[in-house]
Write a structure and sequence with these properties.
38% helix, alpha+beta, cysteine-type peptidase activity, single chain, Papain-like_cys_pep_sf, 8 strands, six-stranded antiparallel sheet, endopeptidase fold (from Nostoc punctiforme), hydrolase, two-stranded antiparallel ribbon, PG_Endopeptidase_C40
Length: 239
């Protein structure tokens, strides 16, 4: 049974629900037997209504824990990714490039001038992620990345001494605010693993995949719920 067929069936069910409820509300049954039939019809309508409103619910309860979303955080934290904003490493790279050409100003965090950590803080602020202001604190945020070989676009590289911080762009390139007299720019990464104090990943490198629901699963779920509705009607009629 295709998804289109399931949806068509749901529309048909909703039409029947409306008709059943109209008959019950209009008082078409006045005898004891008729009252029992009305109660049965109401139970059937309610059960079908639940099935129609959520045709994909309930068929695989065992998978709910496996597909639960991870805990979210907008503020950067130690040992955790800031997932609450929905930003990814690609977003970090794209936003950082907006500041190319901004002059280096010690302590600056605006387009009129910024330093290396001010650039990092501003980029993540743009993406809805709160970061500390200075390099030593930024170097504690997110999760550690083992080496340059494992670095992904959007990761932060902090050299030993923690006096500077750069944004890794991938393909051996970094973006940073170098020093007075220079501006925000993209250059070849000059750091080796032996030069680096830490590499930090603040947000996920990629957006999480959304699990797809197959047409077969949708049809099976809808069929199960229709069966439950019919059983409810039968129990109501027997009462």
């Amino acid at each position: 049974m295709s998804v289109d067929a399931v949806l068509s069936r749901i529309d048909e069910i909703r039409t029947r629900i409306d008709a059943l409820r109209s008959e019950v509300a209009g008082g078409t049954t006045t005898t004891t037997t008729g009252s029992s039939g009305a109660a049965s019809s109401t139970a059937f309508a309610d059960a079908l209504s639940s099935a129609a409103d959520d045709p994909l619910a309930g068929s695989t309860p065992a998978t709910s824990a496996a597909t639960a979303a991870p805990a979210t955080s907008v503020d950067a934290g130690k040992g955790t990714l800031a997932t609450g904003s929905g930003a990814t490493g690609a977003d970090v790279v794209a936003d950082a490039k907006k500041y190319l050409g901004v002059p280096y100003v010690f302590g600056g965090t605006t387009r009129s001038g910024m330093d290396c950590s001010g650039l990092v803080q501003t980029v993540f602020k743009d993406l809805g992620v709160t970061m500390p202001r200075v390099v030593p604190d930024q170097a504690d945020m997110g999760v550690p990345v083992g080496s340059l070989a494992d670095a992904k676009p959007g990761d932060l590289i902090v050299p030993k001494g923690e006096q500077h911080i750069v944004i890794y762009l991938g393909d051996g390139k970094v973006l940073h605010a170098p020093r007075p007299g220079k501006d925000v720019r993209i250059v070849d990464n000059w750091y080796k693993d032996s030069d680096i104090a830490t590499i930090r990943r603040i947000v996920p490198s990629e957006a999480p995949a959304t699990p797809a629901v197959s047409a077969g699963a949708a049809a099976s779920s809808a069929t199960d719920l229709q069966t439950a509705a019919l059983l409810s009607m039968m129990r109501g009629g027997a009462a």
